[in-house]
Amino acid sequence: MTNQKHQFDASPVVVEDLAPALRLSLRVKPAHRATLGQALGLDLPARVGACKVAGGTEALCLGPDEWLITAPEGTDLATPARAVYATAPHSLVDISDREITLRLSGPAVLDLLAACCPRNVAAMPVGSAARTVFDSATVILWRDGPTDFRMDIWRSFVPHVRSLLSQVQGEIAAGL
């Protein structure tokens, strides 16, 4: 993913927009998970919060029969999914326009997230992700590194989340 316009640099935390990506909501019974995963060229993880990456495509297990799949724009995953629908019935919905993704990084990123997120993000293993809340907004939080996160936010909540992030960034910067 590449960076896009909005970027606030109030080190020690950087918040930046990432380029749009293909986002798919997948629902499939566990009995058909392997068949559909093979068709998509992905290992669909079975453990909630686990992520698997194949090429530029990433699959996050959100529930026993629910995954979020992200891939570069223009990736065609619908065609191989349709090809196995008769043997692996599923629901695959393009939700790309529903959300935006922010990258949150820097040495104080855990403080930034702790200000509005009840989850103990410090305990999240690198390479995992979770559906959680940031204040009152439901988000998907991906931990890409010790001080590097992505946050998927529904577009309607973006102004609220940006406002909180900016406020907390200011508080962190003033406290140093």
Automatic annotation (TrEMBL):
Classification via SUPFAM superfamilies: Folate-binding domain
N-terminal signal peptide: none
Protein's recorded name: Sarcosine oxidase subunit gamma
Organism encoding this protein: Paracoccus acridae
Species lineage: Bacteria, Pseudomonadati, Pseudomonadota, Alphaproteobacteria, Rhodobacterales
